[in-house]
Amino acid sequence: MCPHTTLTHRVLMLIFPQQCSHYLRFFSLQSSFQNKITPLLLSLLLLLLFRCSAMIRITFLVCGRAPPVIGPTRKARFAGIDDNPTITYKPWDTSEPLMADYGWTRGKLPKFRARSPFHRQQIARRMVTEMIRKDYCIVGGARAPVLRILADHVVELAKAGDTDSRQQLAYFLHDPLMVDKAFDEYPQRFKDMNSKYAMMTRLKSRRRTDNVAMYFVEYKNRDMSDNHKGEDYSVGPERFFLPPRIVETEKGIQRPPHMQMAFDRWASKFKTEEFHHWWRLRHAKLRYWGVRNVPHPSDVDPLWTEKEEEEWHNEMLANTGDFEDLDLDDESYAAPGEGAEPSPLGDGPHRAG
């Protein structure tokens, strides 16, 4: 090697012997003119390095091992490190009542089986609505703790009593009349309790179709309820849309008229010809879908007939005490409850607690 070869030339010769040999041979012959062609030398070296790096990349892609990642990649996320803390990944505020998310981590409701997240929310709304209507609900599997927790949220909204809480419950439930029932009954019923308003009891038998554990979810403190005091849930009614049985000690109990009207309005749609047509059509679909032990639609009897309506009405009149003879012309009569006159003190509504 020529003694006039600089350290840069020697390093390049060690790294790229084939590419640099002819360049260095030329510069060693022209060593007397090195001071004059230094800018040209630097530009040629940069061009050489660029071409060599490109050739190395192409060689690795074609002949050698492929690189582990090609193209733009997502940064690795480590535990406790947020890539962009200004953006929240929660679709809504899960700390609000009835807005809890579903999942299998701590702080989330059990993610019970459903066709989609929308269907899961529909199931939750239907369960809570029926829970308020009947004061109990029999559900299976992971739906039971979900219903118990959401039932507590309903009582929290009812005890708050403000307009925003009523609006939030109205957005969640299917029946707007159940919103009025919850806000009328629960503040007085649970005024001495601050949590755990509903309880969940596992039943002995499992569901026969899919062997799922069944749970009986109900509200506590039923004796303080004007709508459900004295109801017996050990045996269900003859039809699901009939009122529950009453214990012998409370046979002549009177229900609030407006809630009795709300229950009768809900039950009336199952006694119509349209529902019977839908019921027969549902049997036909179930048979078409391959569900076993479903009777033929022609063998399906209506759930309610005029004769059963008359017999049930006579039975209700027999169990109910004699109606008071009201003098409609009496101006001193005052009916407490919904739609009554305001308090003579003029102090407005009283909040429970």
Automatic annotation (TrEMBL):
GO terms for biological process: translation. Residues 322-332 have a biased composition (Acidic residues). Signal peptide: none annotated. GO terms for cellular component: large ribosomal subunit. The keyword Plastid does not apply. InterPro entries: Ribosomal_bL17, Ribosomal_bL17_sf. Gene3D superfamilies: Ribosomal protein L17 (3.90.1030.10). One of its GO terms (molecular function) is structural constituent of ribosome. Residues 317-353 are annotated as: Disordered. It holds the Pfam family Ribosomal_L17. Keywords: Ribonucleoprotein, Ribosomal protein. Belongs to the bacterial ribosomal protein bL17 family. This is Putative 50S ribosomal protein L17.
